[in-house]
Amino acid sequence: MVPMSYRTVDTSRRVIDLATGILVGLRGCSERDAFAELVAVVQRTGIGLGSIARALVAIAGSSDDSVPYQAEAFDAWADLLAARAVAAAAH
């Protein structure tokens, strides 16, 4: 097994923090609840935490088709993203 580099861990942590922040903003929940939601999606899908976080960040921001698991992330959070789009259109 190849150990993760510090840089990979740091990048994953930042992506997880970004995804957590996205959920906090969309749900209006605590960081703890947002992280628990990410973990629940990991448990339901079997996708790694860093990967599903990266997918959520990709679909919440500009589309980057090279990021895997975007369909799974969209399935998990489509309702929140749709609500955000409706709210943005209303302003």
Automatic annotation (TrEMBL):
<feature type="domain" description="ANTAR">
    <location>
        <begin position="1"/>
        <end position="57"/>
    </location>
</feature>
<dbReference type="GO" id="GO:0003723">
    <property type="term" value="F:RNA binding"/>
</dbReference>
<dbReference type="InterPro" id="IPR005561">
    <property type="entry name" value="ANTAR"/>
</dbReference>
<protein>
    <recommendedName>
        <fullName>ANTAR domain-containing protein</fullName>
    </recommendedName>
</protein>
<dbReference type="Pfam" id="PF03861">
    <property type="entry name" value="ANTAR"/>
</dbReference>
<dbReference type="InterPro" id="IPR036388">
    <property type="entry name" value="WH-like_DNA-bd_sf"/>
</dbReference>
